[in-house]
Specification:
The chain is of the alpha/beta class and 294 residues long. The chain is built from 15 helices and five strands. α8 crosses α13 (244-264), α9 (144-158) packs parallel to α13 and α10 runs parallel beside α11 (195-207).
Length: 294
């Protein structure tokens, strides 16, 4: 995982003094290359020991290692993202449409790549086994997480898995409270701190269900309530309300979960997909003659 993505994922658990250093690095990673540790401490209105604690929080031994890591990342990302001054750079009022699209492209592409590069295959395999054996699968997310939850429900439903997603927090809590051994609860939350999602997973665990979290924050409250966790690796921008890169990364994990479950019963999966495809074939607009010739 890149240092910048690590900073994003650990941000919610940082103390205020360390958080100020993190915010400064997120806003301008090159500040570490321009300033000494003393200068950065002054910039962040904190102390040199707090800067060192920040370095250790993100897995580095000190400021020199932080400089080296960020210099390497900045150089690599500048080469890969010619449409942006730096990868993950926020959108600005003065951006051309071409620049804005380039930023979306590289933020979302890197989100998928870093998420899948760091995906724990052992956890994914265990999640797939649990889903394959599950009596019922309850899936919940809020906002953009609800879109991702419904996508997973749809995919599992098409291959004969009893999967349900919920439109309201009340329905989600009702479903979670009725869980039994052999039932699975899956929660999607980028921050891992969404109250409704956390309550859903907590209630499901208390009722005896197996709990799975998909989040960007390994240290979140949601992760603590999960028997198994799958992590996205995403750097969201101030356009967070759009939940862009986080949604794309979560959907990538959904596709991996679906494929992992489907491969466990390959022949029946193919048969189910063909059956459902034929069931809705008559509901689609007929192709034009020119299309049929292609």
């Amino acid at each position: 995982m890149s240092i910048q993505s690590t900073i994003h994922s650990l941000l919610p658990s940082m103390s205020p003094s360390i958080r100020r250093v993190a915010d400064a690095v997120i806003a301008d990673p090159a500040v570490v290359l321009r300033q000494t540790i003393s200068e950065l401490a002054v910039t962040c209105k904190t102390s040199e020991p707090s800067v060192i604690r920040f370095c250790r929080t993100v897995g580095l031994s000190g400021y020199v290692q932080l400089r080296l890591a960020l210099a390497t990342e900045i150089g690599r990302e500048a080469a890969n993202a010619p449409g942006a001054r730096r990868f993950g750079e926020d959108f600005s009022r003065g951006d051309s449409l071409t620049d804005a699209v380039a930023k979306v492209r590289f933020t979302e592409t890197m989100g998928i790549e870093e998420t899948l590069d760091n995906l724990d295959m052992a956890v994914l395999a265990e999640v797939a086994r649990k889903l394959d054996d599950a009596s019922r699968i309850l899936i919940y997310g809020v906002g953009a997480g609800a879109i991702v939850a419904d996508d997973l429900r749809y995919k599992l439903f098409r291959i004969r898995r009893m999967a349900y997603s919920f439109d309201s927090a009340h329905e989600a809590l009702i479903g979670a409270s009725l869980m039994r051994d052999g039932d699975i609860a899956i929660a999607f939350s980028h921050s891992g701190r969404t109250t409704e999602t956390l309550e859903f997973l907590t209630k499901a665990r208390e009722a005896g269900g197996t709990t799975i979290a998909v989040t960007n924050t390994p240290t979140s409250s949601l992760t603590l309530q999960a028997d198994h966790s799958l992590f996205t690796v995403v750097r969201e921008t101030a356009f967070r309300s759009g939940a862009m890169a986080s949604r794309i990364a979560q959907l990538a994990i959904v596709d991996c979960m679906f494929v992992a479950v489907a491969q466990r019963s390959y022949e029946s999966t193919i048969e189910a997909l063909e059956t459902t495809r034929h069931a809705v074939r008559g509901k689609k607009t007929p192709r034009r003659q020119s299309d049929q010739a292609d």
